[in-house]
Amino acid sequence: MQFAGFVTAGKTVRIQSRIDSVVTDVFFKEGDFVERGTLLFLLDPTLHRLHVDLVRERLVAIKTEMEAKTNQLMQFHRIREKTAAFQDRLNAASATLNELKTERRIAEIELKLAEAELSFTQIVAPFSGRLGRIELTQGSLVTTARPCPV
After folding, report:
1. Over the stretch 57-102, which tens digit does the pLDDT of each residue have?
2. Triad 28, 33, 39: Cα angle to 5°
């Protein structure tokens, strides 16, 4: 028995990079079957890793300065009990500490964003299936403006 017909894919997707980068590794061949979550491409993580490191260092600096200002504030509180002349210094130190707390929160958010961007250097299969045509090779530039041809 023979039947005429055609087959179509149940799911299709065009893979899109979330960052602009250069392909450093391709982990599959055209027609390969991959499981969901399989690493397909690795993009150059250098700049994103540096950004994460930069924000981490900024956080360390902010936390160190916060500790110093907290100690200074406690010292001013002790001195204020003896004389009212330190009220201005106490107010200034308190304001500086509040500014540092805000800077710390901003840096923590920047760190989360930088870590997310770093994770985007690994492009994985969104679901299990057979891979189609691949036009990207090691050294290819990918941008957020156009889908990766897979």
Report:
1. 999 999 999 999 999 888 888 887 777 667 778 888 899 999 999 9
2. 45
Residue % of the chain over a pLDDT of 70: 87
**Helix 46-80 vs helix 87-119: crossing angle, to nearest 10:** 160
Q: Which of 10, 7, 11, 21 is nearest to 144 (CA)?
A: 21
Cβ 24 vs Cβ 43: under 8 Å: yes
Element (H, E) at 61: helix 46-80
Count of CA atoms in the C-beta half-sphere (13 A) of 60: 6
pTM of the model: 0.75
Q: Which residue, chain included where needed, has tokens 């010292």?
A: 75
Region of residue 102 (phi > 0: left; psi between -120 and 50: alpha; otherwise: beta): alpha
Q: Which amino acid is at 13?
A: V
